TrEMBL record:
Class of this enzyme: transferase
Name of the protein this chain belongs to: ATP-dependent 6-phosphofructokinase
Annotated residues for binding of substrate: 222-224, 267-269, 323, 379-382
Positions of the record's site feature: Important for substrate specificity: 195
Residue sites binding ATP per the record: 105, 168-169, 193-196
Active-site feature positions: 224
Length: 492
């Protein structure tokens, strides 16, 4: 049996091979494990808003390539099923009993997704029974539910947070599936980050083992942007925009004083996307430190040397640090192995630690007084409503999720790949975490925009590149050999 690192059985992967090295990583469908299900004409065909649209229904063979940059001799590569409404659906409106749950940390846009799931189900498919599960996964078996209607959700998108609450920990697969079965729920919309998607994959496996006609659908959420495959997660843009306010404040403080340093700590437990994009957007940042790129303080090429140069040249500087950066420098201090209820590492405050180190170093070694202001906006970048572009993104994600469930697909995450809405099998989402690749162009762009040292030796760079190549070769190999092969695709 082939399993991913998370014990998700990937041997059931539906891989379809086509001409020219075309590979479709398809998502599960009810018809894979339940026979003779009736289908119905999609009610959208009679909806005045959609019936005028030329080719509104997605073609059964439509798929979206994972890689858009190719060479003339490259194989066509991996594709995902294109999201959208299908001609035939597997549920009648009054048969659907949907539920929505939000898990993990907050993220701008959660309420927008909830709103659009409810309105999409009501307005597009005439579904009237939509339950909100309160307080995350544990809410399935230990909390009340809320009946969600278009009226109830009408202006929740203007508020931060999630109207149905969220939590970490408390995932008990069999209790959750018992609750789904007992309540007669047949569409489960699960909004959350990498941990949540692992939980969703486990729920799907159990639902399938019990042979239930229940669609299990994930909607990827995380301001950290650590979910692989998708272009980016919703709320990320909003968080980066809000982070600008902290960086601006740091810059104003720093440039108003002699030897002023503004130090901003931003969220990013295992990856530095928020810090990287906020730095690139701001142009006021002189140094960005992220978990993927270890840094050191002392000696040639170190952080102290760079700070001294910036202060000498400009009189001030701004540093952005992701909360997960430099944790190895802090190791040994107490509390480093603590975890939250979901098993995520609890981090120590690298920003506070670094502020003290910088002050001590410059007063002792350079006899200089540093005016350092430490700004930690923490929850302020995620406890806000989503901006306009995230709102549109949330709407498309939610509507795509609904179309897929109505069409009988299950075990998928609704996600944007190369600007197109797709259905991605869970095993692809939970397999690994998305990280900033420091040998990619984006990190090089950042280094050339800040002029900061890379903190890497030539040897480090070549090792990093080798590691990346090995990883991508392994991925290629597993796609070619591990999974069940279906030639002559009969795609739905
Ligand atoms: N491997 C796993 N299997 C089953 N459930 C899991 C797993 N990992 C996490 N979960 C559950 O998923 C939920 C959310 O996980 P977590 O707290 O890690 O947040 P997340 O979804 O990764 O979001 P974020 O990191 O953006 O805050 C929790 O209820 C947790 O119990
Ligand atoms: O909400 P909590 O448990 O304080 O967790 C904070 C974490 O959540 C995130 O916002 C998303 O995973 C991280 O950036 C941060 O480390
Ligand atoms: Mg997470």
């Amino acid at each position: 049996m082939a399993t991913t690192g998370n014990n998700i059985d990937s041997s059931k992967a539906k891989i379809v091979h086509g001409d020219g090295g075309y590979v479709l990583e398809d998502v599960p469908h009810f018809s894979d494990y339940i026979s003779d299900l009736p289908t119905y004409a999609n009610p959208l065909q009679d909806n005045p808003a959609y019936s005028v649209v030329k080719q509104y229904f997605v073609h059964v063979d439509d798929s979206v390539p994972q890689k858009v940059v190719v060479h003339k001799s490259s194989p066509r590569g991996i594709h995902f099923r294109r999201a959208g409404p299908r001609q035939r659906v597997y549920f009648q409106a009054d048969e659907v009993h949907a539920c929505i749950v939000t898990c993990g940390g907050l993220c701008p846009g959660l309420n927008t997704v909830i709103r659009e799931l409810v309105c999409g189900l009501y307005n597009m498919y005439g579904v009237k029974k939509v339950l909100g599960i309160e307080g995350g996964y544990r809410g399935f078996y230990s909390k009340n539910t809320i009946h969600l209607t278009p009226k109830f959700v009408n202006d929740i998108h203007k508020r931060g947070g999630t109207v149905i609450g969220t939590s970490r920990g408390g995932h008990d697969t069999s209790k959750i599936v018992d609750s789904i079965q007992d309540r007669g729920i047949n569409q489960v919309y699960i909004i959350g980050g990498d941990g949540t998607q692992k939980g969703a994959a486990a729920i799907y496996e159990e639902v399938r083992r019990r042979g239930l006609k229940v669609s299990v659908v994930g909607i990827p959420k995380t301001i950290d942007n650590d979910i692989p495959v998708i272009d980016k997660s919703f709320g990320f843009d909003t968080a980066v925009e809000e982070a600008q306010r902290a960086i601006n404040a740091a810059h104003v403080e720093a440039e108003s004083m002699e030897n002023g340093i503004g130090l901003v700590k931003l969220m990013g437990r295992y990856c530095g996307f928020i810090a990287m994009y906020a730095t690139l957007a701001s142009r006021d940042v002189d140094c960005c430190l992220i978990p993927e790129s270890p840094f050191y303080l002392e000696g040639p090429g170190g952080l102290y040397e760079y700070i001294a140069r910036c202060l000498k040249d400009n009189g001030h500087m701004v540093i952005v640090i992701a909360e997960g950066a430099g944790q190895e420098l802090l190791s040994g201090s107490c509390g480093s192995d603590k975890q939250d209820a979901s098993g995520n590492k609890l981090l120590q405050d690298i920003g506070l630690w670094l502020s003290q180190r910088i002050k001590d170093h410059f007063s002792k070694e350079h006899k200089m007084t540093i005016n350092l202001k430490y700004i930690d906006p923490t929850y302020m970048i995620r406890a806000i409503p989503s901006n306009a572009s995230d709102n549109v993104y949330c709407t498309l994600l939610a509507q795509s999720a609904v179309h897929g469930a109505m069409a009988g697909y299950t075990g998928y995450t609704s996600g944007l790949v190369n600007g197109r809405q797709t259905y991605i099998p869970f095993y692809r989402i939970v397999d690994k975490q998305n990280k900033v690749v420091i040998t990619d162009r984006m990190w090089a762009r950042l280094l050339s925009s800040t002029n900061q040292p890379s903190f890497l030796t030539v040897k480090d760079v070549s090792e990093e590149k080798k590691e990346e190549e090995t990883l991508s070769q392994m991925n290629q190999l597993s796609n070619n050999t591990e999974d069940e092969t279906v030639s002559n695709p009969s795609v739905k």
